[in-house]
Each structure stands twice: as C-alpha cells, then as structure tokens.
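Model the whole thing, not chain by chain.
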Amino acid sequence: MTPIVEVRDLTVLVGGRRGFLVKNVPPVRAVDGVSVDLRKGEILALVGESGSGKTTLGRTLLGLQRETSGEILLDGTRVSGLAPEAARRARRDIQYVHQDAGAALDPWWSIGRTLAEGLLIHGIRSSAERNDRVAEMLAAVGLDPASGRRYPHEFSGGQLRRVALARILLLRPRVLILDEPTSGLDMSVQATVLNLLLELRERFSLTYLFISHDLSVVERLSDRVAIMHLGRIVESGETKPLFAQPSHAYTRALLDAVPRLDGRSISVGMPVAAN
Amino acid sequence: MIPVLDVRGLKVTIRTDDGPAEVLDDVGLTLERGRILGVVGESGCGKSTLIRAIMGILPKAASTEAGEIWFEGENLLVFSERELNAQVRSSRIGFIPQDPLLALNPVFKVGTQLLEVMRWHAPGSRRDHVARLVMLLRRMQVPDPENALERYPHQFSGGQRQRLLIAAALSCAPKLVIADEPTTALDVTTQHQILLLLRELVAEFGLSLLFVTHDFGVVAELCDDLCVIYAGQTVEAGPMRAILQAPSHPYTRALLACHPDRATSFIGIPGLVPSPLTRPSGCLFAARCADVRAGCAEARPGQGRAASGVQVRCVQFT
C-alpha cells in the first residue's frame, strides 16, 4: 500500500524562552524524532498517555504547530518547512476532528450556519449549493437533514460527534485526524459512533489517524498501532500481533492496565506503584 | 448482619417547567459490609440523582415521593438537614468526586481545604487532624506527604489530585464511601493504580464502597456486586461475576454487547433513554429491547429472579 502521509524523523520543540533578565527556560521535546507512515485507507491508532506528545504530533501534521526538524510528505510531496499559513494550505487534505465536539461549535450559531461557513471559506459562493451540500452531509452522518436549523445545545453528545464529522467531511479531506473521538460517550453511543466512522471511511475513501488512549477501542478498530511515550514512538505494528505480543515494556504496562470484561480482577496485595 | 446501605423502592421527582420529571422511579440496591457495589447505566439513567438522594443533597425542586434509604440500620430520609450534617455526611459517608480539579479550590492550599472538612466532621484537635491527614496521604502514596498540605492543587498531577480527594473522603473515618466515576478523567495506567488503591483501602479501613461508573471494564476489575440502572429503575442486581457471565436483562445484555471486548460489530443500542417527563406506561426498555414481546408495552414488569439468583426486572423472569 502506498503511504499517503510520510513522517520522517520529526522533532517538535514546544515552549522555552531565552531569558534576558529572567532565567532561560529550555523548550520541551514534545515530539522527538518520530518516523511513521500513514497508508492509504488504513486506520492507524496513535496511543499514549497524556503528555506523550500524541496531540502535538497531530497538530504538527495539520500545520498548526511548526516542526523544528524532520520532514512531512503528503502524497510524496514535501509539505514541511513552510510558514504556518502556507503549510496549512498545502495540507488541506488533512483535517482534524476535535475531541470535544460541543466546545468546538458556536452555541449562538445554528448547525447549518456553522457547517456552511467552512464551505464559504473554501470558496463556494452559491448559498443554494452550500445548503444542499450541508443537508446531504447531515444525512450521510445519520442526522435529519432538516436539523441544520437547530442549535448545538439541542443535540446529544453522540449527535454532536456526528455534527463535528459532517463539518469536517464537507471540506472533502482525505486524511482525518480523530482526537479521542469517543471519549466521554456512553458505551452504547460509542459503538454507534465507531460504526459510523467505519462506514464513512468506505464511503469517502478516508484514511484515519486515530488518537486514543482507550486500548479496547483501538484493538477493535485500528489496522495498525503506534505506541507513543515521552515524544517517541516506542513500538508500532499491525494491531493484532502487537496486542498479542507486545515487545516494549511500556506497551506491556499499558496493556496490563486496561480493564477487561473477562479478565482478572484486582486482588488485594498487588503492588501499587506511585505515579 | 444488616447491610451498610439498603435503598428500597426509591422514587424521586423533580418539578420542571414542563411538569414533574420522574428521575428515579423504583431504585433498590443493597451494599453489604466490606464489599464494593458497582452502579452502572447510561447517562440520563439517574445515577447522579441516586447519589444525591443518598447524601441528601437533592436540588430544591426535587422531592422523594416514596422509598427508604437505610444506612447502618437508620432511615436517612427521616433525618433533618442538621442531623445529616452532624451525623452522616463526611463523618460516616465519604464522597469521591468525578473531577478532582473541579472539587478543589485553586486559590487555597490543599491542607486548608482538607482540614476544613475535618474541623466540622472529625473529632479531635487540629494537631490530630494534621497527623491523620499526613498518614492518609502517605498511604495514598502522595509524594512528600508532610509538605503536601502546604501546596496548591495545580502543583499536583491528575492522578495525585484524585489521591488527595480519596484521602479527603477517608479523613473522617467513614463507613461508606461513594465514588462518582472517579477514574474517567484519568489515563489507563493511572486509572489502574487508583482502582488497585481503592481495592486495598476497602480491606484496610473496613469500608464499603458504592462505585458509580458507565464502564463495565472497571466494574469487572473492581466490584463484587453490580446494580444496573435504566431510566430510574434497577433492572438487574446481584453478584458481579454471575451477571457478567450470564446477563439476564436485555438491557444488561445490550450494554455488555457494546463493550469492545465483547462486541461482534459496532451496533450500539438503538434509540434513547426515555425522557423522565414522558415515561411510557409499559416496560421502560421495551422501545429499545431486542427481545420485546407482546405484553411488554402494556404493563411495567416487577422484580423477578433469574436461575442464578440475580434480581431481574423483565417479564421473562416474573
């Protein structure tokens, strides 16, 4: 399979301050020499704890965060080393679905208006065409096409995730960065959202970078997994073999911590490590 | 032996502009001494209202229409506000909140906040209180417990903050601890450590734990007993292992089938929890049930028993 996005030895330094009268603050190596391929049509899961650099990696791919060194290739064309605005333009095919769908929508704007705004920015002048495409996309994500008149507070958590997906899909991306798309949802709703993600991947030939720390979802959904720890990818590979036989100690620790339905229970006397 | 907590037929209605909302309709649960009871259900099923009812902190518009809440042999519903404060809250029932950052005031030192609770609810002098807190923080494996009381909430990580609040819940030596999804905001590895810690504390401090969650995986790791709530009703209750191995109620079965460990495909449960304003006259789950039968929409089923002895509210078992 041809890679759609290639990342070569990417390093991102965040923060830091050269002090004149105050002391120097060294920057943090949020992403530290990461190389990873995203193959066309696959779901690659990026797993790690908070602070491991997975969100920074996602933001850098989008072009919101400038890389310090390393290369990003989109369809074999180099899109790194550009100024933020140029980088964002070059990477229009890569879009981001926000973790908190409710917070990403303006409460005073109807869903239809929010969705149409993206189309307007992307140069669709006819309002009839915008409305048609919004209605069509709302139907595609399993919402009533007429719900464009409604406001964010009238939707449930699961429906808001659908709105967020519709909003991004209107821009016809080819790569979606999904940041914890099911966090905070009930199990019953989570399942329907995951199902929708699989459906949309087929229908719009999408490739997903799935950022998550919910390993049971990752195990079921993703084709490949990359485990991130302290800015580095410590292990990556096909999901099934990696979950069956993790080789890195950190991956094993992560997998052991997942609560399992049919596994062991915690017994008293097991050692507790301080965090 | 009498159970630590025994809730029977609890019915709570909240007045709203659109008429009365039956948030809890018929909730019953039993927490035996020294055990961990998991309360599971989707959002909007009444889990939070149940916790508030037990602690007597329901909103003003809410009224308890029926039922009993027996705590160590006393019916909490006959207690006045003053008696609850003096004899029950914090001193005998501890609470661990969902979001440790929201529960701590950012502008006060941790020690000031935790000692405030003890000043009202724990016997002894301030010096005793400090000694007990330091002992608890050490047990919770908070780094540098002696100086932790002088620090501010932002100086702790998410997992450490949750450890501080567990220490706060235990500070007045309660018999019952109620935890409201205490690990949802945490990473899996931190969650695992907190669950291990809770397990140990239950044995060590002679606690009984009421653990509210929507994650069946956490229930499977931590709990001894399980109570599944749907639309303000207990639909299945019994030993955790028995229910997870052979769930009887269609709702429990559907919920378990949504868990990635068991799911064959990602279907979820179609439909929504019925609104507390307009509850159907028949079985509350009938509209979403995969195994719905002829009489289901007409009459509400009563409590029955499955072959395993588990309580089930479904016509198939009555």
